[in-house]
Specification:
Elements lengths: L1 H58 L2 E2 L10 E5 L2 E12 L4 E11 L10 E4 L2 H10 L9 H6 E4 L3 H9 L10 H9 L4 E5 L2 E7 L5 H29 L2
Antiparallel strand pairs: 1-2, 2-3, 3-4, 4-8, 5-6, 5-7, 7-8
Length: 237
């Protein structure tokens, strides 16, 4: 009986053998691809870390290793100002993908200005809602600026003077014009009584990209200080 069934079992055995070999080859291929993929990703990540560490050394900053992320922020003092540089990911398409940014912050002493304020890029929809409900969005009288930036300050006259104070010794005539100039180079530009923030679209690690952004942020901080001093001198006249 067994000998009689053997010829009928041969095609089935061959099928199982072929299937096993196909699965084995597929498994080897997937494992090999995963191994090479992991090696490539590890090498890519190490290259970015090495570049980031080199940037930190060249700028005289420290890597804050307390953060639980592959690429940790740079922090320290640059031209007598406290700065922080980091990367930001913003989810989109319900979390299926991300927008990546490089962010530079210069931290200031809010008491140096004497009044709280914030100036930031904003889309027209939110600006329209703010105008409708009567919150924030102080207009300084420059159509191009008022259209591109959202200004929030309880002292409207003070922030108008701060933004429009004549400063002919800089890249432009005043702080408002500076912000409009940098808006052309950065995805986001924001200043406040305690902060200057610039944001580039994309992840960058090379000092050739980071240093100009840091210098621009420091430049804005110095222009804010100069405008505030000018307001103080005018108020004593």
């Amino acid at each position: 009986m067994i000998l009689f069934l053997q010829p009928d079992l041969m095609p089935l055995v061959k099928t199982f053998v072929i299937l096993f070999l196909m699965l084995f080859v597929a498994g080897v291929a997937v494992t090999t691809a995963a191994w090479f993929g992991l090696r490539f990703f590890a090498r890519y990540l190490n290259t970015r870390r090495d570049t980031w560490e080199a940037t930190a050394r060249l700028l005289g900053l420290e890597i804050n290793r307390e953060y639980r992320r592959p690429i940790k922020p740079l922090e320290g003092v640059y031209q007598d100002l406290r700065v922080k540089i980091f990367h930001e990911s913003v989810p989109k398409n319900r979390g299926r993908s991300f927008d990546l940014y490089t962010v530079c912050e210069v931290h200031l002493r809010p008491e140096a200005f004497g009044f709280p304020f914030e100036v930031r890029c904003e889309d027209s929809i939110i600006q329209g809602i703010a105008r409708f409900i009567g919150k924030g969005d102080v207009e300084i009288g420059l159509p191009g600026f008022d259209k591109s930036f959202y200004v929030d300050c309880p002292d409207a006259e003070a922030v108008r003077c701060l933004l429009s104070a004549d400063q002919p010794d800089g890249q432009t005539v005043n702080l408002a014009a500076d912000l409009m100039l940098f808006r052309k180079s950065y995805w986001d530009v924001r200043i406040a009584d305690d902060l200057v923030c610039l944001k580039l679209d994309g992840e960058f690690f090379e000092v050739a990209k980071i240093r100009p952004m840091l210098d621009d942020a420091v430049y804005l901080a110095e222009r804010m200080r100069a405008a505030r001093k000018k307001l103080s001198s005018l108020s004593t006249v």
